Protein backbone atom coordinates (compact mmCIF):
# COMPACT_ATOMS: atom_id res chain seq x y z
CA UNK A 1 0.00 0.00 0.00
CA UNK A 2 1.18 3.52 -0.73
CA UNK A 3 2.88 5.54 2.03
CA UNK A 4 0.37 8.39 2.04
CA UNK A 5 -2.78 6.29 1.72
CA UNK A 6 -4.59 8.08 4.55
CA UNK A 7 -3.93 11.49 3.05
CA UNK A 8 -5.00 10.23 -0.38
CA UNK A 9 -8.16 8.74 1.14
CA UNK A 10 -8.99 12.11 2.68
CA UNK A 11 -8.52 13.82 -0.69
CA UNK A 12 -10.64 11.19 -2.42
CA UNK A 13 -13.39 11.80 0.13
CA UNK A 14 -13.24 15.48 -0.77
CA UNK A 15 -13.26 15.01 -4.52
CA UNK A 16 -15.89 12.24 -4.70
CA UNK A 17 -18.75 13.93 -2.94
CA UNK A 18 -17.66 13.42 0.66
CA UNK A 19 -18.17 17.12 1.25
CA UNK A 20 -19.68 18.53 4.41
CA UNK A 21 -21.09 22.04 4.27
CA UNK A 22 -19.66 24.46 6.81
CA UNK A 23 -20.93 27.99 7.47
CA UNK A 24 -17.50 29.49 6.70
CA UNK A 25 -17.48 27.92 3.25
CA UNK A 26 -14.94 25.22 4.00
CA UNK A 27 -14.95 21.52 3.30
CA UNK A 28 -13.99 19.07 6.00
CA UNK A 29 -12.08 15.83 5.57
CA UNK A 30 -11.38 13.52 8.45
CA UNK A 31 -9.05 10.61 8.89
CA UNK A 32 -9.10 8.08 11.73
CA UNK A 33 -5.74 8.04 13.49
CA UNK A 34 -4.67 4.94 15.38
CA UNK A 35 -3.14 5.73 18.72
CA UNK A 36 0.58 4.98 18.73
CA UNK A 37 1.38 1.75 20.50
CA UNK A 38 -2.22 0.54 20.59
CA UNK A 39 -4.39 -1.51 18.25
CA UNK A 40 -7.43 0.73 18.48
CA UNK A 41 -8.67 3.74 16.60
CA UNK A 42 -7.89 6.93 18.49
CA UNK A 43 -8.96 10.49 17.90
CA UNK A 44 -10.12 11.67 14.51
CA UNK A 45 -7.91 14.08 12.60
CA UNK A 46 -10.01 16.86 11.16
CA UNK A 47 -8.77 19.17 8.42
CA UNK A 48 -10.78 22.05 6.98
CA UNK A 49 -10.31 22.91 3.31
CA UNK A 50 -10.79 26.62 2.72
CA UNK A 51 -11.28 28.27 -0.66
CA UNK A 52 -10.84 24.85 -2.37
CA UNK A 53 -7.14 24.96 -1.47
CA UNK A 54 -6.53 21.20 -1.25
CA UNK A 55 -2.73 21.53 -1.37
CA UNK A 56 -2.69 23.60 1.81
CA UNK A 57 -5.14 21.21 3.51
CA UNK A 58 -3.03 18.22 2.49
CA UNK A 59 0.10 19.90 3.86
CA UNK A 60 -1.71 20.56 7.13
CA UNK A 61 -3.04 16.98 7.27
CA UNK A 62 0.45 15.56 6.70
CA UNK A 63 1.84 17.80 9.47
CA UNK A 64 -0.89 16.60 11.86
CA UNK A 65 -0.26 12.97 10.92
CA UNK A 66 3.47 13.46 11.45
CA UNK A 67 2.85 14.96 14.90
CA UNK A 68 0.55 12.09 15.85
CA UNK A 69 3.15 9.52 14.77
CA UNK A 70 0.95 7.87 12.15
CA UNK A 71 3.68 7.70 9.50
CA UNK A 72 6.04 6.08 11.99
CA UNK A 73 3.32 3.61 12.99
CA UNK A 74 2.62 2.77 9.33
CA UNK A 75 6.32 2.19 8.70
CA UNK A 76 6.57 -0.10 11.73
CA UNK A 77 3.50 -2.08 10.68
CA UNK A 78 4.53 -2.43 7.04
CA UNK A 79 6.41 -5.63 7.89
CA UNK A 80 6.13 -8.16 10.69
CA UNK A 81 8.27 -7.40 13.70
CA UNK A 82 9.29 -10.32 15.85
CA UNK A 83 8.54 -9.93 19.56
CA UNK A 84 12.26 -10.07 20.36
CA UNK A 85 12.97 -7.28 17.85
CA UNK A 86 10.11 -5.24 19.31
CA UNK A 87 11.56 -5.58 22.83
CA UNK A 88 15.00 -4.49 21.61
CA UNK A 89 13.51 -1.48 19.78
CA UNK A 90 11.36 -0.44 22.74
CA UNK A 91 14.30 -0.76 25.13
CA UNK A 92 16.47 1.40 22.85
CA UNK A 93 13.68 4.00 22.62
CA UNK A 94 13.35 4.05 26.43
CA UNK A 95 17.11 4.55 26.82
CA UNK A 96 17.03 7.37 24.25
CA UNK A 97 14.15 9.08 26.07
CA UNK A 98 15.90 8.75 29.46
CA UNK A 99 19.12 10.24 28.04
CA UNK A 100 17.19 13.13 26.52
CA UNK A 101 15.44 13.89 29.82
CA UNK A 102 18.75 13.66 31.71
CA UNK A 103 20.45 15.98 29.20
CA UNK A 104 17.64 18.57 29.41
CA UNK A 105 17.69 18.42 33.21
CA UNK A 106 21.46 18.88 33.28
CA UNK A 107 21.19 21.89 30.93
CA UNK A 108 18.42 23.40 33.07
CA UNK A 109 20.48 22.96 36.25
CA UNK A 110 23.58 24.40 34.59
CA UNK A 111 25.68 21.24 34.86
CA UNK A 112 26.41 21.25 31.13
CA UNK A 113 26.39 24.06 28.60
CA UNK A 114 23.41 24.46 26.31
CA UNK A 115 24.05 23.63 22.65
CA UNK A 116 24.93 26.59 20.46
CA UNK A 117 22.14 27.76 18.15
CA UNK A 118 22.66 26.77 14.55
CA UNK A 119 23.58 29.62 12.21
CA UNK A 120 22.19 29.49 8.66
CA UNK A 121 24.58 28.92 5.76
CA UNK A 122 25.47 31.81 3.46
CA UNK A 123 22.69 31.31 0.90
CA UNK A 124 19.93 30.40 3.35
CA UNK A 125 17.26 32.68 4.81
CA UNK A 126 17.10 33.60 8.45
CA UNK A 127 14.18 32.21 10.46
CA UNK A 128 11.20 34.56 10.75
CA UNK A 129 11.50 34.68 14.53
CA UNK A 130 15.20 35.64 14.58
CA UNK A 131 16.27 38.92 16.19
CA UNK A 132 17.26 41.54 13.64
Topology:
Layout: H1 5-15, E1 27-34, E2 41-49, H2 54-68, H3 70-77, H4 83-109
Give a quick set of tags describing it:
132 residues, single chain, 2 strands, alpha+beta, two-stranded antiparallel ribbon, 2 domains, flat
Order of helices and strands: HEEHHH
Count, helices: 4
Assign a percent range to the helix content. 40-55%
Mean pLDDT: 76
How would a crystallographer describe the biggest sheet? 2 strands, antiparallel
- Tell me the count of domains: 2
Query: What overall geometry do the principal axes of the alpha carbons give?
Result: flat
* Oligomeric state of shown chains: single chain
If you compute it from the alpha carbons, what radius of gyration comes out, rounded to the nearest whole angstrom?
20 Å
The counted number of beta strands is: 2
Q: For the terminal residues, how far apart are their CA atoms?
A: 47 Å
Beta strand %: 5-15%
Q: Please list the strands of the largest sheet in the order they lie side by side.
A: 1-2
The poorly predicted ranges are 18-30, 33-40
Structure description:
With about 130 residues, the chain is of the alpha+beta class. It has two domains: about 5-75, no CATH class; about 80-115. Helices cover about 45% and strands about 15% of the residues. The protein has a two-stranded antiparallel ribbon with strand order 1-2. The chain is flat. Mean pLDDT is about 75; it is low at about 20-30 and about 35-40.
Question: How do you describe this structure in short?
Answer:
This protein has 2 domains: 5-77, no CATH class; 81-113.
